[in-house]
Design a protein that fits this description.
The complex is a heterodimer of chains A (258) and B (288). By secondary structure, chain A is of the alpha+beta class. Chain A has 2 domains: 108 residues, no CATH class; 131 residues, Outer Surface Protein A, domain 3. Chain A contains 11 helices and 6 strands. Chain A is elongated, with a radius of gyration of 24 Å. Chain A starts with 7 loop residues before the first helix and ends with a strand. With 288 residues, chain B is an alpha/beta fold. In chain B, strand 3, helix 3 and strand 4 form a beta-alpha-beta unit. In chain B, helix 1 runs parallel beside helix 2, helix 4 crosses helix 5 and helix 8 crosses helix 9. Chain B is globular, with a radius of gyration of 18 Å. The chains are: A alpha+beta (258), B alpha/beta (288).
Chain lengths: 258, 288
């Protein structure tokens, strides 16, 4: 008996992503044609659909390296780190790290940073909904005589900070037609706050003091403690202006006195 | 609530705003469950609004009913949450496997039509129907290979699943055509064997032509092209036996404009309403 003594998935699965794997035994075709050619339909479906999913999540990476390179990079990633769960919106978190360590991509040193920014955008896009509060909430609290070390902000679930040693924010923006590529010095590090306001994902270029501030607030620090963190980066950090930005972009969902 | 016996189309994110603005006259929308297994954001925003105006079918593509191991309970929980949130008129899934050993392959992979697989699929469907508190529809697959261990026909397998679990069937007419061509079967005979009384929904879709190692036609269920005339013909003969049935036009690749999709779905409308005998005759010629 040459049939599959173990279930079909156990026999077929190893052959799906490994191009060197032999055709599983137990396959049959009505016309005695080589089943490898037919199995190739599934091999192609698996690999190409997962690369397509990565292309949807990382469109600027694709534009930066071109279709052919991206598909080779994507194939290498899919084989090294196939999805572990069946929701493809959550697939690709390990891709930026893979890009950073992918030798053929090293000529594009900012590629992994752009990938990381695109991943944050997808996370922000699908993150939980929450109703933002307006700046009047802060004015009411500060008007009541509360001090900054008593006031805590809750951030929208989509808010994430991005820091890169290269000009990844500008490079990403250039691919949205927002800045000109030739005006960018790629070796200048850039920071941003990524969040979703209503239905739109925003990438707000900031300085490192601002990202320090957001990180501290996200880690449940009071405004005063977050301000200290920001000032380690820039002594002239403008708290009022940055809070105004956060409120106007819907980044704050609650204020609390503790 | 049931899906209406009308034509529906797949809801695509690029059409969200236009659907709400235009409010097309269409029987229902269908979405892939896994695309909406996210916490919040635009997908839920738009689906929630569209759901207020149209019947909804939720179609899973990754439940792994034909998998070797037990169902993924975390995935079932996400599915149950989606059902609770949208209360769709229908839930359907595939006779296929898509995950193994903790890896998700994002493809509808074939199962052997043997007794052990029948038992696993039935116990999985029992579990899903119990967990979701509703009857589900099981879709017949497009297949490219067969297995030595298969001991029954696909139709007999499906009929036995229906008999044991009480689930309904989603008859994908394109899959039936594709599988018949790919395995040298007579589609008219296959349709005659198909357990039509259990069918709660029909899918029509487009395939891509390829060839196997012997040069025989091999059709790929790509959902990347308009519905083939042969599939419309098969659909017309299904309607001739079943009467009007909820019918989804599927398109997942090279997605055209909303108006083009609606125009193609209108062919199903014509056949469903018997509004054009000429059109039905034309389609039926396709299978002959």
């Amino acid at each position: 008996m040459t049939g599959m003594l173990i279930a079909v998935p156990a026999c077929m699965a190893p052959a799906l992503l490994d191009p060197g794997h032999s055709t599983p035994t137990g396959l049959r075709t009505w016309n005695e044609s080589d089943p490898a050619r037919r199995l190739a339909v599934h091999r192609n479906n698996v690999l190409s659909s997962l690369i397509d999913a990565l292309a949807d999540t990382f469109p600027v990476v694709l534009q930066l390296v071109g279709e052919e390179f991206f598909r080779a990079l994507g194939a290498a990633f899919v084989r090294a780190a196939p999805p572990r769960m069946p929701v493809l919106a959550h697939y690709g978190g390990e891709f930026p790290g893979f890009v950073a360590a992918f030798p053929p991509a090293m000529q594009v040193p900012y590629l992994a940073d752009v990938a990381r920014l695109e991943w944050l955008r997808v996370r922000a896009y699908h993150s939980a909904d929450a109703e933002p509060v307006g700046p009047e909430a802060l004015q009411a609290l500060s008007g009541s005589g509360s001090s900054l070390d008593e006031i805590y902000l809750s951030l929208h679930p989509s808010v994430q900070v991005f820091c890169a040693p290269f000009a990844a924010v500008s490079i990403w923006a250039a691919h949205q037609g927002q800045v000109r590529l030739e005006d960018i010095d790629v070796n200048v590090g850039e920071d941003a706050v990524v969040l979703r306001q209503a239905l739109d994902v925003l990438v707000l270029p900031t300085d490192s003091a601002s990202t320090q501030f957001v990180q501290a607030v996200a880690a449940a620090s009071s405004i005063a403690v977050a301000l200290e963190a920001a000032k380690t980066e820039a002594t002239d950090f403008n708290l009022v202006a940055f809070l105004a930005t956060l409120f106007s972009r819907g980044a704050v969902t609650a204020l609390e006195l503790r | 609530m049931k899906l209406p016996a009308r034509a529906g189309i797949g809801l695509k994110p690029q059409h969200f705003r236009e659907v709400l603005a235009v409010q097309p006259d269409i029987g229902f929308f269908e979405v892939h469950a896994e695309n909406y297994m996210v916490a919040g954001g635009p997908y839920h925003h738009f689906l929630g609004r569209i759901r207020e105006q149209y019947p909804l079918s939720i179609h899973g593509v990754a439940l792994n009913l034909g998998g070797a191991g037990p169902l993924d309970e975390a995935h079932l929980d996400r599915l149950a949450e989606l059902m609770r949130r949208y209360e769709p008129a229908s839930f359907s899934e595939h006779l296929a496997w898509s995950s193994h050993g903790g890896v998700f392959y994002n493809d509808l992979l074939p199962v052997a039509y043997d007794r052990p697989t029948l038992q696993r699929v039935c116990s999985n469907i029992d579990h899903v129907q119990e967990r979701l508190g509703r009857r589900m529809l099981l879709e017949n697959p497009s297949t490219y290979v067969q297995f030595e261990t298969s001991s029954m026909s696909e139709c007999d397998f499906l009929a036995e699943v229906v008999r044991r679990t009480g689930c309904g069937l989603l008859l994908d007419v394109n899959n039936l055509h594709v599988s018949c061509v790919n395995h040298g079967r007579d589609v008219v005979a296959c349709l005659a064997e198909f357990p039509l009384s259990a069918v709660g929904e029909v899918h029509v879709a487009g395939f891509t032509r390829d060839a196997d190692a012997a040069g025989a036609p091999l059709l790929i269920d790509s959902h990347a092209a308009p519905v083939d005339i042969a599939v419309w013909g098969l659909y017309a003969s299904v309607l001739a036996r079943l009467g009007p049935v909820p019918t989804l036009l599927e398109r997942d690749q090279d997605i055209p404009s909303l108006s083009e999709l609606l125009a193609e779905a209108h062919r199903a409308v014509l056949l469903l309403t018997g509004g054009s005998q000429q059109h039905a005759d034309l389609c039926l010629e396709g299978v002959q």
